Amino acid sequence: MSNDEDDVEWPREVAERNQRLLTVVSGSSDAEENTVDIIDPNDIVGVNVEIELASTGISEPRSLTSSLNRNDDSNQNNEPVSEIPVDTQANAILSLFVYPKPNLSTKGYIQTFCGAERNKTKNSNKAITFLEDKDRRQDCSDASKSSKCIGQRYCHHRRFTVAPSEDLTDLSILVNAIRKLSQPNKLPATSLDEEERLLVIVNPCSGQKMGVSEYEKMLLPMLEEAGVAHDCLITTHTKHAEERMRKQCTPSDFKDVSKYTGIVVVGGDGTIHEIMQGIHQRDDRDKILESIKLGMIGAGTSNGFSASLAHASKESMSPLDSAFVIVKGMSSWIDLSRYDTKSSSYTSFLTFSWAMIADIDIESECIRWAGFLRMDIWGVVRVLFLRKYRAKFSYLPPTEDKKTVILPPLSTPLSENEGWVTVEDDFVLFWVSQVTHAGEQMFQSPSCKMNDGVFQIFVVRGNVSRLRLALILLAMEHGGHVGMNGVEFIQCSAYRLEPITQGSYNDLDGEVIESGPIQASVLPSSIQAYSNPQYD
Ligand SMILES: Nc1ncnc2c1ncn2[C@@H]1O[C@H](COP(=O)(O)OP(=O)(O)OP(=O)(O)O)[C@@H](O)[C@H]1O
């Protein structure tokens, strides 16, 4: 069997479907082979090998556990480091950490053979025979049945005993091949500086206060299975995450954020907002945004960012699914935006709202105990006591080149000659999105793409009736409001909003910021997020 994928003779249907599955067979090469398992390498997050001496009959692994993971720089070939004499036979227990989706398609596969019959099957080149350890597999299946199936993916780890062999070369090749198949885009780190290391920021107070347990029970084991190194910060106070983004000046400080591959939040959108503002205050913010990846395990009240990433990736919205995408290292560029108020500036990743949605979001803080229902409850109040706000609204329609628009100061009038469109009207709802979801139950901007370089502005003007408004809000959970009478979507690459009627809030990513006039421009594809977009 060759390490080089190009040398593998793929069955024709595999090449056609570009689909690669591992088939595990039991029995030796001269006995009849039974397919005992089919595993999609895309579902594997890590591989582990334990070695035990066959002749000793010792069931406990002897001093040798080789974690054949992604960043094992000390062992470039991923060969298990053996202390076993060459002439001693050993059993290898191969663990595959697998998180599949149900309904695995079985069309097309790689048959992978290895092991004791190596010499006999050498001519067949790709030669490794598994002896399945039925007891262990049974144990594992039972465990997976009892394991909590969260979201679409579920934990279904496998353990197999590989046939005894005189040396571990074939096993090493097999493990290396599985690793390569499960991480097709992963380049090996060339130095310790480049080693993948995540900063995990856990907010213990987000949402239902499940952040720490989500981290300990779900993310931490998966990171260990995948061999992804990380540091963890459990926030102790408001703005702690923002403070952590500040430049670390002395070697005795914590590691500077620029040294991490990614930042993963176990919490809500407010924690990411803090991280963005912390980075925004740094001189080297563009460099950091360019080099770091952002991920989120939704443990907050709304979790709009993780819902949007899951939607773009066609994964289900659950902590386990989000952790899977992060641990696999899948990422893609997404847009951010820059906001200016009279005296401040911000980097935004989610939404801006003014008028009704801002009122609901901010005023419902007093019924936070109601969880995500607080938005529904306050929505009813706001429909009954309908408010309209007058504003001057200017926007710049998007252009093909997707360039960042450099905005003049807020006090400078915008010119029609430069393409700006200006209207003055009464608004009931004014909601700017760069993502599809502002919360798990808020599919407010279905046509948003995470990196299309445009704002989608969802507007409802002042002439809407209460009934129609209620229907619009009810339909929004599933995106049914698109196309309804009274709903408008305006696309633009930059805009300015100058409220004439006072009283509403400027709500950026779910947080209140300075009120009054505000303007923003899209920062196209300016950070990578852990996601796997599957746009049609
Ligand atoms: N240890 C802590 N004690 C009190 N507050 C904290 C602590 N750590 C962080 N915070 C604050 O908690 C606030 C809310 O956090 P977060 O946004 O993650 O949760 P959420 O509001 O429930 O979720 P969402 O924003 O998705 O609705 C943040 O603004 C943050 O400043």
From TrEMBL:
Recorded hits in PANTHER family, A to Z, give:
ACYLGLYCEROL KINASE, MITOCHONDRIAL (PTHR12358:SF31), SPHINGOSINE KINASE (PTHR12358)
Q: Establish whether keyword Kinase is in the entry.
A: yes
Q: Could you tell me what this protein is called?
A: DAGK_cat-domain-containing protein
Entries under InterPro entries matching the protein: ATP-NAD_kinase_N (IPR017438), Diacylglycerol_kinase_cat_dom (IPR001206), Lipid_Phosphate_FormReg (IPR050187), NAD/diacylglycerol_kinase_sf (IPR016064), YegS/DAGK_C (IPR045540)
Organism for this UniProt entry: Fragilariopsis cylindrus CCMP1102
Q: Which PROSITE patterns match?
A: DAGK
- What are the annotated GO cellular component locations? cytoplasm; membrane
Signal peptide feature range: none
Question: Please, one GO biological process term?
Answer: sphingosine biosynthetic process
Q: Where is the composition biased (Polar residues)?
A: 61-80
Q: In this protein, which residues make up the domain named DAGKc?
A: 193-343
Query: Which keywords appear in this protein's UniProt record, sorted alphabetically?
Result: ATP-binding, Kinase, Nucleotide-binding, Transferase
Coiled-coil intervals: none
**GO MF annotation list:** ATP binding; lipid kinase activity
Q: Where is this region: Disordered?
A: 61-84
